[in-house]
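User: Reviewer 2 asked us to show a designed sequence for the structure in our supplementary figure. I'm pasting the structure tokens here. Could you produce the per-position amino acids so we can include them in the response letter?
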């Protein structure tokens, strides 16, 4: 999503660089971008219209119009996010309700997840020399946790940028793992997903969206309440990490 692409630039460029300045302005004024012309944005960022045009193409959009559409998609996705806490409840009532729903979620995952596929995914991670992650939005923070934990297990892991344009040697010993909580990556990044699917690597998808068509390996995380999808993915990632730790302990003991 556009937010992740902007974060990539903000985390990679010097604050005096024009790409940083433009990203910072757009991120702070996202709600206004859909009604602003390319000239208005260039004036606000103290750069030329040509630099704005070059910037949006750098993000992977054909035109400024496509870029504005991506901003609208992002804003609509934020509106669709379901609130966990109820405004009419006090903190104690919200915690009680959250705990009930969270426990129900855990029980549902325990009952409905495909253990054979989960085992296959864990074994696939353990046997590869490296793992590369692709995720956007909320899933990016989950990837960062996975990167730290697998690093602690001496499993080399990297997080690719949002358009998967970094040049890596994707040999057969590298696994690609896509984390898409609700499947929005498949709506907003069709060209990127196509690029990944065309790679010869062992490729996996973890998602709560069971309706996604995916020609390679797929683990569906079952949920009852879509508001808890992110928590459900985090829980399954914790399970994967715990099982990989067990694998490592067993190897040491042998």
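Assistant: Here is a per-position design you can include in the supplement:
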């Amino acid at each position: 999503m556009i937010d992740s692409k902007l974060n990539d630039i903000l985390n990679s460029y010097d604050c005096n660089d024009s790409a940083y300045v433009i990203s910072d302005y757009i991120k702070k004024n996202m709600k206004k971008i859909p009604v602003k012309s390319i000239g208005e944005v260039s004036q606000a960022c103290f750069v030329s219209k040509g630099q704005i045009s070059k910037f949006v193409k750098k993000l992977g959009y054909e035109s400024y119009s496509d870029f504005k559409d991506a901003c609208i998609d992002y804003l609509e996705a934020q509106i669709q996010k379901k609130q966990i806490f109820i405004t009419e409840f006090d903190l104690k009532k919200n915690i009680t309700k959250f705990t009930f729903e969270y426990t129900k979620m855990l029980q549902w995952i325990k009952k409905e997840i495909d253990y054979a596929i989960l085992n296959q995914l864990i074994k696939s991670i353990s046997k590869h020399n490296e793992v590369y992650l692709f995720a956007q939005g909320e899933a990016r923070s989950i990837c960062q946790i996975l990167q730290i934990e697998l690093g602690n297990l001496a499993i080399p892991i990297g997080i690719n940028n949002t358009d998967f344009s970094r040049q890596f040697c994707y040999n057969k010993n590298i696994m690609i793992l896509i984390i898409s909580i609700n499947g929005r990556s498949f709506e907003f990044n069709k060209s990127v997903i196509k690029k990944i699917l065309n790679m010869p690597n062992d490729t996996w998808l973890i998602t709560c969206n069971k309706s996604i068509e995916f020609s390679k390996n797929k683990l569906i995380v079952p949920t009852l309440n879509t508001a808890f999808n992110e928590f459900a993915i985090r829980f399954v990632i914790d399970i994967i990490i715990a099982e990989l730790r067990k694998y490592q302990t067993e190897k040491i003991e042998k």
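For the response letter, you might also mention the following. Strands lie at 130-135, 157-159, 174-180, 202-207, 217-220. The CA atoms of residues 152 and 170 lie 23 Å apart.
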